[in-house]
Amino acid sequence: MKKNQNISFITGILVVLFYSAFTLLAVSRYPLLYSPTSNWLSDLGNPQNNPQGAIFYNIGIISTALLLMLFFLGLSVWKIEDRRVQIIMLRLTQAFGILGVICMMMSAIFPINLFNIHSFWSSALYIMLSTAFIFSVAMLRYHQWVTRWLLLLGVLTAVLVIFMSFLQTVYVLEWITVFLFLSYVALLGIETKRVYFRV
User: Could you tell me the pTM of the whole model?
Assistant: First the structure.
C-alpha cells in the first residue's frame, strides 16, 4: 500500500520539477523575444527557432510523460474493492491518462515546426489528459477524506481545455492550462500521500 502511495506522490512532484527545469533551460537558450502573450510553450521545442534549446524542451516533455505514466499507474491505491463503479472510474482515469502520455511524447517527437502533425498530437494530449482528470474527479468523490477543492481544480482544468479549443490564438490560455495541469497532478500526489498516510 505504502509503495503504491509513494509512486503517485513522488512522481507528482517530479512531474512539476522536471517540466519546469527543462522549460527554463529551453527559455534560457531561446534567441528571440519569448512571452506568454505571443508564444506557445511548444515554440520552445522548435529546433528552427530555438536551435540550442529545443532539445532541452523536448527531452523535458518526454521525461514528464514517462513520470506521468508512473503517476497514473500509482493511482491504483485509490481503488475501493466493493465499489464497481468507482473501480471503472479509476481504470478510465488510468487509460485516458496513459493515452495522454503517449500523445505527449509524440508531440515532442514531432515538434511545432512540423505544425500539422504536432497540432494533432498536442490537441490529443490535452483532450486525453483533461478526460483523465474528469474521470479522476468521479473516482475521488467516493472518498470522504478527499479535499473537495481538489475536485473543483480537476474540473476547472478540464473545462479550460474546452475554452482553448475555441480560443486557439490566446497563447496565455495554454500557459494557464498547463499551470493548472501541473498543479492538479502535484496536489493529487500530495493528497494521495496525505489520505493514505492516515489509513
Answer: 0.92
| Alpha-carbon distances, residue 114 vs 43, 49, 151, 187 (angstroms) | 11, 12, 36, 34
139 contacts 190 by C-beta, under 8 angstroms: no
- Rounded to an integer, what distance in angstroms lies between the CA atom of residue 151 and that of residue 173? 21
Cα–Cα separations (whole angstroms), residue 195 to 5, 9, 55, 69, 122: 9, 11, 38, 21, 33
Of the candidates 91, 60, 63, the one whose C-alpha atom is nearest the C-alpha of residue 75 is 91
pLDDT tens-digit series, residues 128-174: 999 999 999 999 998 888 888 999 999 998 888 877 766 767 899 99
Contact 26, 44 (CB under 8 A): yes
The Cα 121–Cα 125 span in angstroms is 6
> Which DSSP category does 146 fall into?
S
Write out the three cell numbers for 38. Answer: 505571443
Residue-wise pLDDT for 28-83, tens only, equals 999 999 999 999 999 999 999 999 999 999 999 999 999 999 999 999 999 998 89
